[in-house]
Every structure is written in C-alpha cells, then in structure tokens.
Amino acid sequence: MTWSVIGALQGVRHALPTPHGSVRMMHQTSVLARKSGPGRGRARKSPNTLLRLHAEGKLRGAEALQAARLVEEERFRSSFSGKSDESAHPSDTMTLSDARQVIRAVDAARPRNAYELHIVTSVPSNQTNAFRGRLTYPRDPRIKGETVLVFADQDTEAAQAAEQVNEELKASGSSTRLIVGGQELIGETSSGRVPSYTRVLCTSALLPSLSKALARTLGPKGLMPNVKRGTVANDGEEMRRAIDQLVTGVDWRGDRVGVVRGAVGRISFSEADLRANVQAFLDAVIARAASGLTGTKVSVKVVESYARDVSSQREDGTTWQRRGPGAMKRAQSIIKDVYLSSTQGPGIRLRLEDVL
C-alpha cells in the first residue's frame, strides 16, 4: 500500500465523529428537545387562580387535580378556624346526654376508655403560645396517679407536711405517691437511681442545689420547680397546697390553631360527673381566653362577665349554674364548636347551649 493511500484513509478516519462526540451531541439534542417541547416555559398559576378556574370548571388534567387538593386543604383548615361553610360544620348537633349514650353504646365493652373533649376556639394563631392553663376536675379522669418528688430537708415543716399527705394518700387507696428527701434525694436523682417521676416540688432552701445538679435534666421536661408555677414551697401550708394542685390538677394547652383537647372522663362515669368535668374544662378555657393572652391587663369584672350567673333547678331538685343571655353570647364569641369523642368512638358535635 502506497503512502498516498494510507494518508487518504487517515483523513477519512479523522473526518468521522468519535463515539464520545456522537454521544455528547445526542445528549445536547435531547436536552434542547426537552426544553423546547410542548408545555415547557408556561407560567404556573397561583393558588387563587387555580381555585377560581376550578370553580368555573375550566381546568383539566394535572391542574384540576392540584386545584382539588387545594380545595380539600382549605376545607380541612377552615374546620378548625370557625370560618367554614355548612358542609364543613354539619347542622345536626346533640346534647351531652345523647352524645354520651351513643359513645357508651360503641365502647360498652371498654369502660376504662376516656371521653375526650375537642374545643374549637376563636383565639388567633399569634396568641396560642400563651393559651394554656391548669384546672382541677370535680372527678379526676386519670387512671394512673402521679409520682411526685419533694425536695425538702428533714425536720422541716414542708417535709413533715409532705410525709403526712403521703400517708393520707396511701390510706385513701390513691395511686399517687410522694418521694420526700433532701440533699440525698438530689444525688440519687442525678445518678438515675430514682424511678420515673411526673412532678417535682422543692423548698426555696434547696432550690439552688437542685438547679445546679438537675436543671439540665428537669428543664427540658418542664419539671423544674418555679415560684410562678407554685411548685416552690417554704412552709407546711404552702407544701400542702402545692401537692393538692399537682395531684388533682391537669394541664391543658391549645395548639397552633386554637384547638384545645383533653380527657374529661371515663366511659364508666355517670352523666353528672361527665357534665361537671366538661363544664369545668370549658370554664377554664373561657376564663383564660377572656383574661387576655398578649399581656394586656383585663379587669376581674370583665372576666366574671363570662362566668355562669344564673341558678336553675333540675327535675330531680338539684341546683346548677348556667349562663344568662349576655354571658352566653360572650362565651360563644370564644367557643366556636365543642366535640365529644372517645378513644375508639365517633366524634359528636355538642350543642353549645347545653354545655356552656
């Protein structure tokens, strides 16, 4: 083969595209095709535009599905804000007595299941952080008792009062128990030798030592004693009062949309006990919302204007307190809806005039 033929063949080889070059060119071509394909480059519609076009029936395909999801989200959100239409809030409501009978029929075989109350309020979302409180039920709905750590030096009035209350609780058959101790109890708790506990009380004399040893443990759990919370006592009377509040009191708190949930009884409770607990829960929520959540001082008369101010007599001769027209109207400006349910039962919307 002559040198001229070899040179001609090499020129043809260099003129042909390499495999890598062909792959790169095909990739660039596919990218350009995707960028310039049908449906590319169109501006996305805003949620309001999608909802408007959905109401007019002008959407198809993926945009129709997206609009349907927006409608469902809006309906779910409005069910907790008190600004929904008739479809979100059904008109059929029940009295507390009828709702209790329905739930008892569902949970007849589970008498230890709890009645749960869901309260939809008008508290704005920017004030829900302070929407919390503590109440004492006429009949405690809890099954398990509290385990309270009482940090008090021996031979003090606070320690003696705590020991007396502990003996009274044991004699009454209560499942709540107190663990009383001083510096030795602080050391045992910091080393993890104390069993699980739910509440903590302390005297002012031991508060510095307790803060130094257990602040990082109790603080994140919300158990660190505080004077404002009433969990710091100095004498026997204050210790008894603090123990009573911890043993019988229940904390409640609203979520970010102003809905408050809590257990108000057991399936085995009578109607009178359940009604008393429901009214106590509602009164506590109304009083907290009426007292102001943004730091504004509200007079006592304004808070009392929401309370029950009329006495009525039932058929069995018992007397009960209810709200008059003015107090009822003010209470309904805070409480939008109340639902009663059970652990495994349905949720039933209650008639506000019956429970408020």
Radius of gyration: 33 Å
Global mean pLDDT: 78
Number of strands: 12
Quaternary status: single chain
Principal-axis shape: globular
Can you characterise this structure?
One of its GO terms (molecular function) is structural constituent of ribosome. Belongs to the universal ribosomal protein uL1 family. This is 50s ribosomal protein l1. Among the domains are: 96-131 and 258-354, 2-Layer Sandwich (Ribulose 1,5 Bisphosphate Carboxylase/Oxygenase), CATH 3.30.190; 147-250, Ribosomal protein L1/L10, domain II (Rossmann fold). The chain has 13 helices and twelve strands. The protein has helices at 3-15, 19-35, 47-56, 61-81, 96-106, 157-171, 183-190, 207-218, 236-248, 271-290, 300-304, 325-332, 352-355, and strands spanning 114-121, 132-136, 147-151, 177-181, 199-203, 232-233, 249-253, 259-266, 310-313, 319-322, 335-342, 348-349. Helix 6 (157-171) links the parallel strand 3 (147-151) and strand 4. The radius of gyration is 33 Å and the shape is globular.
